[in-house]
Write a structure and sequence with these properties.
The chain has helices spanning about 10-20, 30-50, 55-80, 85-95, 100-125, 125-130, 130-160, 170, 175-205, 205-225, 225-230, 235-240. The chain is mainly α. The protein has one domain (about 10-240).
Length: about 250
């Protein structure tokens, strides 16, 4: 399957649809994150068209770079698993019988905590990082995504409700869970920007420094999976304990 290219977000949505339509029975649990991500990508596209962002062309380029990291991991796993980053490998290998919400969160962890800083670096060059005014615009557009995601929380919760039975407690906690989702998405996005800056410093230093720091981020993101699989009300727990990961100062 070809990766989406310069055609932009529309090509990303089409690439996701192609993968949705070719999921095998053994891959069915991957539908939860993939379908959620496709709908969210469509929401970003509509926000671009509405003029929500300061630099819509940059946001579109970022969205394509971001999606390609997921699609590459998805396709590599289908091809045998070589080169799949650990957070994605653990997400793909999770038990198929997990509730749909857990599969979505496993994908969100790999994609936001691990992929997103890399996607931002792909569309913010070393020279652009030195331009404070430009970097501020990039950061504001990055933060503006929070509004797009928050607007999707209720709709995505309803979509997941159609994929699995919910207990009386689940239904009673639904408003709290939606607020918790919005909170941890904002929290993780702030940490993503911190990690992007840390990775940028490493790429300026040397390719080896960058590889070391990226490997640290990969391990931190993979370690989050234990929290996502622990029993209990996962969204409420994440709202309190946090969802994002933070790269420490370099050794």
């Amino acid at each position: 399957m070809e990766q989406p290219g310069p055609a932009g977000i529309a090509a990303v949505v089409a690439a996701m649809q192609e993968r949705l339509e070719t999921l095998t029975l053994a891959e069915e649990s991957r539908r939860d994150f993939l379908a959620t991500y496709q709908r969210t990508t469509g929401a970003v596209s509509r926000a671009v068209d509405r003029g929500v962002f300061e630099d819509p062309a940059w946001v579109e380029a970022w969205d394509v770079a971001f999606a390609n990291l997921y699609l590459s991991a998805f396709d590599a796993e289908r091809a045998g698993g070589d080169g799949v980053p650990r957070p994605w490998r653990l997400a793909f290998d999770a038990p198929a019988g997990l509730p749909p919400l857990r599969h979505v969160l496993l994908g969100v962890n790999a994609h936001i905590n691990y992929d997103l800083p890399q996607a931002l670096l792909a569309v913010i060059s070393v020279e652009q990082f030195a331009d404070e005014a430009l970097l501020d615009r990039r950061r504001r557009d990055h933060e503006q995504i929070d509004g797009v995601l928050s607007d999707r929380v209720a709709a995505e919760d309803a979509e997941l409700a159609t994929r699995s039975a919910r207990t009386l407690l689940d239904r009673a906690l639904r408003p709290l869970n939606q607020q918790a989702s919005k909170r941890f998405l904002r929290e993780s996005r702030r940490k993503v920007w911190h990690n992007t800056v840390e990775l940028h410093k490493a790429r300026v230093a040397s390719p080896d420094d960058y590889r070391i720091r990226l490997a640290e981020l990969e391990l931190l993101s993979a370690a989050r999976i234990a929290d996502l699989l622990a029993p209990g009300q996962v969204l409420l727990r994440l709202a309190v304990a946090g969802f994002g990961v933070v790269l420490p100062p370099p050794a």
